[in-house]
Amino acid sequence: MDKGEKIFLVDVRDPAEFAFNRIQGAIHIPLHELGLRHKELDPEADIITYCHLGVRSLKAAQILKSLEFLSVRHLAGGIDAWSAQIDPSVPRYK
After folding, report:
1. What is the DSSP letter of 71?
2. Active-site hit among 9, 12, 51, 79
3. Which of 36, 69, 78, 79 has CB 3.0 to 4.6 Å from 54, enough for a Cys bridge?
């Protein structure tokens, strides 16, 4: 992101979690809606999914890959790791 590369962040957490904190510029598609809403995403784009700790985002990445999205990764450690290692202004929660 710092290099200016176009990366789509997809936040797969529940709405209450998204309301509490988020990574700026992220698209919010809760995991339970991903199967219905995946067409909102470009299957050729670089996509990184994230959640609180990385478990749901791993599942989301697997779902998108099964739908033939070409470049999908997930944020290991989720937004919690992002806050701890990248941007401490993002509030952490349990």
Report:
1. E
2. 51
3. 78
Which residue bears the tokens 């401490």?
A: 88
CA–CA separation, 88 and 64 (whole Å):
29
Q: How far apart are CA 65 and CA 42, in angstroms?
A: 12
What gap in Å lies between CA 22 and CA 30, rounded to an integer? 13
Nearest Cα to Cα of residue 10 among 2, 46, 44: 46
Question: Strand, coil or helix: what is 11?
Answer: strand
Q: Kindly report, residue by residue over 3-58, the tens digit of the pLDDT.
A: 667 899 999 999 999 999 999 999 999 999 999 999 999 999 999 999 999 999 99
Tell me, yes or no, if 76 is annotated catalytic. no
